[in-house]
Amino acid sequence: MRSLVALLLGIEFAVASAFAGGPQGVSYDSVRTQLLEAGMGKCESYEILRQLVTAAPHRLAGSPGAEKAVAVTRQMMLDRGFENVHAESIMVPHWVRGLVEKASITRSRKHKGTPLIICALGGSIGTPKSGIEAGVLEVRTFEELQALGPKASGKIIFFNRPFDPSKVNTFEGYGGAVNQRSRGAIEAAKVGGVAVLVRSMTTRLDDVPHTGVMSYVDSIRKVPAAAVSTLDAEMLSSALRVDPNLQVRITLRCETLPDVPSANMMGEITGSEKPNEIIVVGGHIDCWDKGQGAHDDGAGCAQAIEVVHLIKQLGLKPKRTIRAVMFMNEENGTRGGKAYPHARERAGEKHIAAIESDEGGFVPRGFSVDADSAVLARVRSWAKYFEPLNAGDIRPGGSGVDVHPTVQTGVPGFGLNVDPQRYFDCHHSDNDTIDKVHPRELELGAVSLALLTYLISEEGF
Parallel, antiparallel, or unpaired for β 274-284 and 350-356? Predict the structure, then answer.
């Protein structure tokens, strides 16, 4: 009798567990299992990414590649039966790299004629046709530069501050170094510098330069700026210690043209109960004109499309509308992210979550939550559903550049967090190609995003 009671209690517990916590008698554990089986069985997000980077490897806003990417992702959504597939027009910057970017040491007892591997920073002006030749002044901080005062006048300012290697999260190392790229030309011009070389923003020592956005202010003279590979940054630093009077010539042909039209592209699955309540999951379709933008952020776009595709494929009926958005112009203007929450198409819509994947297609670890403590606590209560994916680390943090303007309107924001150790090997460089993306890692991120999106669609906040 005791064994029969135990058996009956066991059955009752199993049934209760199977149906607890899910909609219409479907458990979230079951949904996760279905997503895993469907996703990992085909790794469709990798095929989506392959098609994107093959059709449009260079997708800088304003370029023909960016417009090709908009068209390609539109067709991908239509082919997968997405609803309300449409573009929302925006104007974007149009910066072009030019065919010439070179540098070399022109005056030195030992290193004369040695080339430096460089690439223009995004938004930089070009040099005169003959280039700029000058002495080089190496600094690591803006404070060090300012302290040099008149000694910096007429010099090429060489910012050579590496990532802090003690930071476990490489995004922290990036945050501690990137201002020399973004503001280096401004600070150099303030002290009379004539051009800027910046150590590439990467944790690796290699011969591949990494581009990225830089800025000017109208009230300060503009000077050209380029990134130099980390190996050549080390070499130049060593050469300067021996020969502080060496000179370098830099030649760039980049320029900024008038703004051009472009678009955010999106498609969705309509909510079965609350169709006007929207969950956005997105990535940015643009990338720098180096490599293929596979990790940054073709991966996030592929995952966003796969989220909606998986939910449709499984026949799940989310209560709320789930929308995949391919944001344009994250890299050098964020026009797409800024335009989205204010577009005329938002009339009558209520957004309840904005989710972004923009850390590369690496192994997922969890999510950052950009919302109040109540939302954070709610999402942490769902961590048990992500733990079998090893993606149950839920913590406060930023959501993403493109969804941030939507989050600023009061919408909870979420960012997919991944293992960060290899991201800056590729970031903004010719290393960012699809062979650096592992299909299973990419798909695990898509499955994690799909599960979070589905949980929000059923539970709300």
Answer: parallel
